[in-house]
Amino acid sequence: MAQSKAELLSLQQLRCFCAALELGSFTAAAETLRVSQPAVAEQIRKLEAALGLDLFVRAGRGVQATEAGRRFAEHATRSLQALEDAAASITELTELQTGTLAIGVFGGPAAWRLDELALAFLRAHPDVSLRFVGLNSSVIADRVREGELEAALVVLPIDDDRLDVRPIVRDEVVYVSADPERTREPATIARLAATPLIFYDAESADHDPIRRQLAERAQALGLRLQPKVEVELKDIALRLVAAGLGDTYLPSAFTRLPYYPDGLHTASFEPAMYDTFAVVTRTGARLSAGMRRLLDDLETHMRRVADELDERR
């Protein structure tokens, strides 16, 4: 099948044509494009050969468009501008000038003060928009894996198939009870199996990273943890614990939030258990400059907050 005329054209031919048309000479076009005058003349010659018509005629020391040249110019200038606009849109993203950065975030990140990260980032990059997509870590990891998100901050463990995982900080998970007697010693899986339990993240259930850790420990002992009540939100679970309905688990960072009820007591697990936070990206994916900058700032922020939490313990 014969090639169409458009397939025979090159971007450099269009640039040379448009420059010569605007400036009225090959020499001026060459100076603007920073190439030699013969190079411009050669590109125009190839363009005319591909189209089968002369686009310019000599006019004194310059050139003037023919009828064919004027018709071609109507479309060529728009096409070249569209290509330049398309390239500029990518440049804006790679150089962190404008655009929206979307990043996945584990469910319920309030204790880690990501609002402070957003404020600082947007002060430095006011023309960029941020989108924090908050879901359970397993769901967020799936969206990164499928290319729907560039990156995410998750709680481990997750399925790491086709993902690069970079752990950054961790936070101890504690046992929470309204009964001080139950927190005098470290909590064991055996004790949990014999205690009424309040679980949160009901939608995610055993896909929740902490519940996965608990389930794996129980399974290793031949036990099964069965909650008395499951709810979606941590604050509701804590209010039920405060009412004496049962006990729960909680990342220690959340014990410092306003909704943490008075009168609750905590103990470490035996052995100690942690939320491990990690940045995940798709294996082999090239991140935009904006996302690389955001991830650098995110890691610095998470480490700073983790240090502050450690100092308060």
From TrEMBL:
GO molecular function: DNA binding; DNA-binding transcription factor activity
Keywords annotated in UniProt: DNA-binding, Transcription, Transcription regulation
Keyword hit for Transcription regulation: yes
Presence of the UniProt keyword Transcription in the record: yes
Pfam families, per database record: HTH_1, LysR_substrate
Xref: InterPro entries: HTH-type_LysR_regulators, LysR_HTH_N, LysR_subst-bd, WH-like_DNA-bd_sf, WH_DNA-bd_sf
Highest rank taxon of the organism: Bacteria
PANTHER family per the UniProt record, alphabetical: HTH-TYPE TRANSCRIPTIONAL REGULATOR YBHD
Family note: Belongs to the LysR transcriptional regulatory family.
Name of this chain's protein: LysR family transcriptional regulator
Species of the source: Solirubrobacter pauli
